[in-house]
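Structure in, sequence out. Go:
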């Protein structure tokens, strides 16, 4: 089989392609499209931003993505646009020139493509401030003012995708994409399998239990570009339509494991505003447009942003192996650093988040060195109920405090059944040393993490007892 995609109206077909070749490499070294730049090779700087479209019914859903960690088979059956596609005449480019939005120019193509994505209504850009759209693009010359002005000057417009839709329909596969590539240098055969249904996925994993599952590749992509790992068999979730559903009802929200963050954002924000704000700060738009909630959970990172929040909200997972399914509490999925409760050939099928009771006090806070597009030093999530001045229940979870996302059970015990008072909160804050022994790393020392975790609990008390008291520098500045 070959990888087929649409580029500027032309169908391209690639044969004998390494499944772990990135779209950035393919553009620069196979197609000679050097406008797409490599700045970081880890999805952080946005210099490699491209726009990718996939069929969504009788329309195309466009996404701004990082080409540097996007594997070539992930654009099979999709439309690709690069800065060269705009021919230097698009309104975004004209405004960037008119407003002097480029200095050294290296980052400029990425900014242009992010703003172009906004101009055509790419996923996650509707009613989104320009600053949020370009939060995943870095300018080392600090030229953000003119870039923001250029973005604001270009209004979103409806584009005619009819020809692209017809071309993509002709590329639609009925069978899974299956690639085989002989890597002579590594002395192995690499394989890429892209099932089109959850049943096909389950069968493929039973047959290939040691395969590496890839969803958005926002983590696995770095294994290849930074760690130079050799991946032999990869099973992709990108074409599994029945893992991409979002269901909302009175019981809560159920997300297929393949739902991208940008597509889950609105439902999670409706569940609670703090969840929506947390999602807004997970990477840049390009990362949220590719990364999935199921992948964020499955990789078991102790500093993944979403698991602490979902643990505090008592989320559960549906795990599947073959035709067998089981449901477990999310908190029990994480066994220890690098180990999860997932058998060979088993995968996360869905995540269910119960709808909180209206009176539940919920607070979710992410602390990072850089406010936007940065990894957490500590992420804290609190869900409490208080009746007649007494704490009835408490679920507290932190990321960045242990080898896995983990509940603060000693702190919870210090709260439950006690008066909702400053003294009770202080005892709970002091109990956190029984729950965690954090590591010291580049994002924060052990002492820092314990201090801020305790202070987040104290801050929750202040916010609930005196709403007028500012609890952040920004709040204080705004008066």
């Amino acid at each position: 089989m070959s990888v087929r995609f649409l580029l500027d109206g032309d169908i391209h077909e690639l044969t004998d392609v390494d499944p772990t070749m990135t779209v950035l490499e393919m553009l620069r070294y196979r197609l000679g499209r050097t406008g797409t730049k490599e700045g970081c090779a880890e999805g952080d700087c946005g210099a490699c931003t491209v726009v990718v479209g996939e069929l969504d019914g009788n329309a195309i859903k466009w996404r701004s993505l990082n080409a540097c960690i996007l594997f070539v088979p992930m654009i099979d059956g999709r439309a690709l646009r690069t800065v060269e596609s705009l021919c230097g005449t698009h309104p975004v480019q004209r405004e960037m020139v008119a407003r002097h939005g480029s200095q050294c120019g290296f980052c400029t193509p990425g900014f242009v493509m992010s703003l172009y994505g906004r101009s055509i209504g790419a996923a996650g850009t509707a009613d989104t401030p320009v600053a949020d759209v370009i939060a995943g693009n870095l300018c080392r010359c600090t030229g953000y003012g003119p870039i923001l002005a250029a973005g604001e000057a270009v209004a979103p417009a409806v584009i005619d995708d009819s020809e692209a839709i017809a071309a993509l329909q002709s590329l639609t596969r009925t069978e899974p994409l299956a690639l085989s590539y002989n890597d002579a240098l590594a002395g192995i055969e690499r394989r890429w399998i892209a099932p089109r249904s959850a049943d096909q996925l389950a069968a493929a994993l039973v047959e290939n239990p040691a395969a590496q599952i890839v969803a958005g590749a926002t983590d696995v992509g770095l294994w290849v570009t930074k760690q130079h790992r050799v991946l032999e068999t990869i099973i992709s979730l990108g074409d599994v339509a029945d893992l991409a559903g979002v269901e909302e009802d009175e019981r809560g929200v159920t997300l297929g494991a393949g739902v991208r963050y940008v597509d889950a954002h609105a439902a999670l924000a409706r569940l609670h505003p703090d969840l929506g704000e947390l999602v807004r700060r997970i990477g840049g738009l390009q990362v949220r447009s590719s990364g999935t909630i199921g992948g964020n959970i499955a990789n078991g990172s102790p500093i993944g942003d979403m698991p602490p929040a979902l643990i505090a909200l008592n989320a559960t997972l549906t795990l599947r192996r073959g035709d067998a399914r089981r449901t477990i509490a999310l908190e029990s999925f994480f066994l220890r650093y690098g180990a999860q409760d997932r058998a060979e050939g088993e995968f996360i099928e869905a995540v269910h988040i119960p709808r909180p009771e209206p009176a539940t006090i919920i607070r979710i806070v992410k602390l990072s060195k850089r406010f936007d597009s940065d990894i957490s030093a500590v992420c804290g999530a609190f869900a409490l109920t208080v009746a007649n001045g007494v704490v009835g229940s408490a679920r507290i979870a932190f990321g960045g405090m242990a080898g896995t996302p983990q509940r603060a059970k000693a702190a919870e015990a210090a709260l439950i059944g006690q008066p909702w008072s400053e003294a009770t909160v202080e005892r709970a804050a002091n109990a956190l040393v029984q729950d965690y022994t954090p590591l010291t790393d580049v994002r924060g020392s052990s002492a820092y993490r314990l201090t801020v975790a305790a202070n987040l609990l104290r801050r929750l008390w202040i916010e609930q007892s005196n709403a007028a008291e500012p609890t952040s520098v920004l709040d204080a500045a705004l008066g």
